[in-house]
Design goal:
441 residues, alpha/beta, Rossmann fold, N-(1-d-carboxylethyl)-l-norvaline Dehydrogenase, domain 2, eight-stranded mixed sheet, 19 helices, 45% helix, 14% strand, binds nicotinamide-adenine-dinucleotide, binds uridine-5'-diphosphate-glucose
Length: 441
């Protein structure tokens, strides 16, 4: 059993802290956001993540997990301090390290003895060394630095953490790497030990590689549309080659979320700062930026004119099973629909409250999918929620004014759309034409 403090109780800090508590450690999660801590102390979870509520409440009840705004006290009581604060994108694309340095300073000022200080946040190469220098300037006490980047995905965060595929541990001293490796023993995961710098780089390289797979398949999808191939068949066929692998080859409206957009931009910035070419990463970013708008052209093509049309937007969160709206395609696309004169009725099973903070336009929000589609001229699918994938297509058909679906996530087979009589335009596949007239302006 180790005593841990986790600084920053967001998506990563809260999941990491809860999982470390769940395997038997004593964990204090800290945040500067007093309202967040107050909610957590009442058992209210500020984010939607499947299974998290139960895990937090159980570990709180069993006395292994606590929440506080008192960072100094948490640091004093702990041997290992995890930093999990945000590293958002700043205007020029680089990672904003303000929160990292502020957290490091508060740790240093509270230290009274030896600590292991672990950076879990995604940070540019060299950050661990700068943090080490900053802490050394503010405390006479000994400490070791570790980089232990996080690879969890939102929506499956608990599973990704409890059954992690690998733990990357880069440390300034082997005694700290040993301690962090031991901490991970109950996860029975593969541990890969590296230098501090390599661990930091692995995180950016891994995210950029996954983003590259997505932009690559989206470019192939656009080519499939022009040539008569079906991208679903193409990606399945490619993925059967174990050297390629089937994951992250789902064509759609591109990647969003709090990580890929920010981390690809940060990597591009690191390249430019280091005088290294970033041609490939530039292409990945540009392809992705264009990809989310392909559904607008498809809608325009189907409806002829969007003025006065009612569009049901199905799915607002950047991916299913989360309420995270950071870099969600809906945040860019809904204002564009409204600007073109459309009335938007937006459905999401979980993210409505979050969405309202991100979308300023005057639109109708509903948690009832069938209310959203009633009398709509078209449905625009932006998130592949299970609720969307399993909707009653006959009911949908009977409720809509025009049976037009533009699907940015390829939720349905072409055959089922054709048998239900929809006009159906998806990504990288043939358009299914209904018997109904569409595009008549
Ligand atoms: N969200 C993910 O899925 C994910 C996955 C892997 C890695 N990461 C990385 O993890 C880091 C955190 O991401 P997140 O999504 O959890 O961010 P987040 O914005 O959800 O949470 C960050 C939290 O840190 C708190 N904070 C800021 N400064 C603080 C300080 N000085 N002291 C204490 N608390 C402070 C904020 O109030 C906030 O609650 C980022 O570097 C991100 O790139 C995120
Ligand atoms: O084949 C695919 C897979 C994903 N996506 C999109 O890519 C984005 C990211 O999806 P996902 O990776 O599942 O979610 P995140 O929670 O953003 O997780 C990524 O970003 C995290 C933060 O760094 C990392 O920890 C994870 O390993 C990494 O997968 C989403 O917009 C998805 O719709 C696709 O378009 N096609």
């Amino acid at each position: 059993m180790r005593r841990l403090a986790v600084i920053g109780t967001g998506y990563v800090g809260l999941v990491t802290g809860s999982c470390f508590a769940d395997i038997g450690n004593q964990v204090i999660c800290c945040d500067i956001d007093a309202s967040k801590i107050e909610k957590l102390n009442q058992g209210i979870i500020p984010i939607y993540e499947p299974g998290l509520q139960e895990m937090v409440v159980n570990n709180q009840a069993e006395g292994r997990l606590a929440f506080t705004t008192n960072i100094a006290e948490a640091v004093k009581q702990s041997d290992i301090i995890y930093i999990a604060v945000g590293t958002p994108m700043s205007p020029h694309g680089e990672a904003d390290l303000t929160y990292i340095y502020a957290a490091a300073k508060s740790i240093a000022e509270a230290m009274q003895d030896y600590k292991i200080i672990v950076i879990k946040s995604t940070v540019p190469v060299g950050t661990g060394r700068s943090v080490q220098m900053l802490i050394a300037e503010h405390t006479p006490h000994p400490f070791d630095m570790v980089s232990n980047p996080e690879f969890l995905r939102e929506g499956s965060a608990l599973k990704d953490c409890m059954s992690m595929e690998r733990a990357v541990i880069g440390a300034t001293h082997s005694r700290a790497a040993d301690a962090i490796e031991e901490l991970h023993a109950p996860f029975r995961t593969l541990v890969y030990r590296t230098s501090l710098e390599s661990a930091e780089m692995i995180k950016y390289a891994a995210n950029a590689f996954l983003a590259t797979k997505i932009s690559f398949i989206n470019e192939i999808a656009n080519l499939c549309e022009e040539t008569g191939a079906n991208v679903a068949e193409v990606s399945t066929g490619m993925g059967l080659d174990s050297r390629i692998g089937s994951q992250f080859l789902q064509a759609g409206i591109g990647y969003g979320g709090s990580c890929f957009p920010k981390d690809t931009e940060a990597l591009r910035f690191i390249c430019s700062k280091s005088g290294v070419s970033s041609r490939l990463i530039n292409a990945v970013i540009e392809t992705n930026a264009k990809q989310r708008y392909v559904v607008l052209n498809k809608l325009q093509h189907a409806l002829g004119n969007m003025q006065g049309r009612t569009i049901a937007v199905l799915g607002l969160a950047f991916k299913p099973n989360t309420d995270d709206m950071r870099y969600a395609p809906s945040v860019d696309l809904i204002p564009e629909l409204v600007a073109r004169g459309a009335h938007v009725k937006a459905y999401d099973p979980i993210a409505l409250d979050e969405a309202k903070k991100w979308i300023q336009e005057d639109i109708l929000y509903t948690q009832d999918m069938y209310e959203a589609v009633a009398d709509a001229d078209a449905c625009l699918i932006l998130t592949e929620w299970d609720q969307v994938k399993s909707m009653d297509l006959a009911r949908l058909y009977s409720l809509m004014r025009q049976a037009v679906i533009v699907d940015g996530r390829n939720c349905f087979s072409l055959d089922e759309m054709s048998s239900h009589g929809f006009y159906y335009s998806s990504i990288g596949r043939a358009v299914v034409h209904s018997q109904l007239e569409v595009g008549i302006g």
